[in-house]
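Complex record, two chains
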Amino acid sequence: MTITLLRMTLAASLLATSALAEDAAGFRENFLSGAAPWETVTKRAADEGTVNLYYWGGSDPLNIWMDQVVTPDLAKLGVTLNPVRITGTKDAIDLVLAEKGAGKALGAGSVDAIWVNGENFATLKRQDALFGSFADKLPNSAHFEWDETDPRALLNLRDFGLATEAAEVPWSGEQYVCAVNTGRVEHAAAPTTFAELRTYLEAHPGKFSYVKPPHWLGNTFVQAALYAHNPDGSGATPFQETLESLGAAELARLIQPGFEYLKSIEPLLLGAQSGNIRYPEDGAALNGLFLNGEIDFACQFGLYAVATNLANGTFPEGAQSFIFPEGNMIKNKNYLAIPSNAPHPAAALVLADYMSSVAAQASKLQFTGMPAGIDPWTLTTDEAETLSAAAPGYIGVTQAELDANTAPDTNATLVDVIEAVWLDYIERGSADPFDVIVARAVSNLSN
Amino acid sequence: MFLRLHRSALILVAVFVLGPFVPLMIQSFAFRWGWPDLLPSTWWLEQREKSLLPLAWDYVLSPYSRILEATLNTILIGIVVTALALVICLPAARVLARETFPGKHAFEFFLALPLIVPEAAIGISLLMVFIKLGLAGSYLGIIIVHLIPTIPYMIRMLTAVYQGLGAEFEEQAMVLGASRWQVLRLVTLPMLMPGVIAGALFTFLVSSNIFLLTFFMGQGKIITLPTLLFSKISGGTLDASAAGIALVVTIPGVLLLLLSERFIREEAFGKGFGS
């Protein structure tokens, strides 16, 4: 009985893949070369009928938004959204690569679009598992700044320093913002520089911690510290280069003061007094410590995190954002990527275009507090107003303050090294000279 | 005296079993519950009207949580896996219990292997094979992998009952003139019933709790209660809706246990061993 069922499934899957899959490669060629008008994409998308979007499913508001807004909107375009909620983005990447390894080409895989950024995008790119440069060919691509000469285009063109080459389309923009519990500390007393943070911790030992690297929330805190302690005073600038062009010795020189700072605050972090330093594992654990008053400040990506976390009860009532660290609040975007073996490439393009529309961005902002991924200066006044009206609002900071203190993310090739150095130097407390630690991290990664 | 001791032991067991559920239940009704508050400072019902989006149980019971789909999938897969495991294991257990053949011990060890090899190792290598076969992401694929960790349990339980049964009862019935069919229907099956039910119950419970293999084979497209729960609690903390889902996940197991408890005592033991 099992055998018959097996045969039936095999036959069915063969039938399904044969029809549309055959011309998927031709469709891709036509679209990427600009030969196919958008109507052929929408028509093909309706024929394909479904789009499988893989995204981190741990957020209730995002899940509700997908079901309540995206699903009906896409249905009007003839496409059924299949929102696949995953525990970690890496699972979807592994799936794409496993299927690619098993010889599943365009039209035959199972992932149409993934919510990614940074390392996961870099993996797809390195493994040549991306559909191609689609983002600047969507009708709604006008909502993004693509002009390389405009510095504001940086976040559309580079993802953690790696060129996106329009193989992913920006979905949301984020900034690393810290929150203070004003029920415990006055807003004015919150530190604005790393030196002030150390002074605060000397007076209140144990009342702070950051998410443990290699989690990206922890990496970002470390990167901000490295920018602020850059011995040349040039902040984030040298960290935009690749590891290759920078070299291990130069990197070691640039990051040593920052790491020494991190080492110096370690005895003042949460739990250090009882000899058991606690770095929260992820954003949720960090929020838990913050809600429970174990730490006075919580740093993570989230321009509107205070407003949304107050609305769902994960932040204490007195939570407010504050500017920290001055001039080095890292800003980045996250994206939707289409893998090279997407089963429904046209439907994936329709999804990507829909997600880049003002209406979708505004309702996402309203439902989930995820800031817009489209660039407001490319919009008409009405559209820009729709967007800002949907924002949950800042608590404790202003847009001007946030804009005045932004810094770009670190190049993805350096992030790996910085991660490894943190684990060696801070977590394991290696006694080797600092440049040896960095050289070891570099050589381990190149193997 | 004995009664009192008996009762306090029962209470102790109840505390151990039900204790962990108490914070879970409170959490499922909480809006904001921070240390050092003994009870939530704000309850879900106080915030219910103010919130734009459904919170806590409103979310769990809404279609957005997909809890119904996950429950139906879990039950469907569990039933099919149990039925298939029975079909495979009943004859196998009979042979293992009654016959001797060269390499029997090695074979029995081989049957227990899936319990020793880590699930992740089996999962990722099977995924490669299943992708090639087109079984990944299908119900059939999940059902097949669920047979791997469940068959060892089922075989062991059925072998044990077959050993306890002995061939004499069947021979006696035949001597008294029963046909093969009558022997199976009136003697073998009723006497095997407690083992079959215990094995089926165990198989269903194991199947409905498998996360990793289900996730690999379902590719996130087919959700069951464990995969749904994991995607909610992977953040490391338990919010109200995650607590609600965790509570719902325990319901099938509890129901089944209560049901089979009754069934084993009254039906099987009652009729099978007719005292």
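Note: The beta strands of chain B are 30-32, 42-43.
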